[in-house]
User: Fold this.
Amino acid sequence: QVQLVESGGGLVQAGGSLRLSCTASGRTFSSYVMGWFRQAPGKEREFAASISRNSDTTYYADSVKGRFTISRDNAKNTVYLQISSLKPEDTAVYYCAAKVVGSSDYFALNYRYWGQGTQVTVSS
Assistant:
């Protein structure tokens, strides 16, 4: 089983930046598509970004495009989410997740493994 652990969340002023990290156990990290999802209080979990196994392809939700950058380092079993120009509406718990190829990146139900989440709070 793959264990995912997120880190890097915190309290940041609007306009600031954060880099979230998610580190996976095991030696099959490069076999998985990696995604970031977020869930604000009272809202459904929503797709934020995903990255292909070899970093050739990335996808972003329209709400984060241009501000968020997803990347991965397979040698470190780590996926990152660089978040810039933070807005209060970005406040949420951010989760990383892993899935095999062959299904849509956009739907949480397609992801096999999930981290515990890291809180991002943006103050105005």
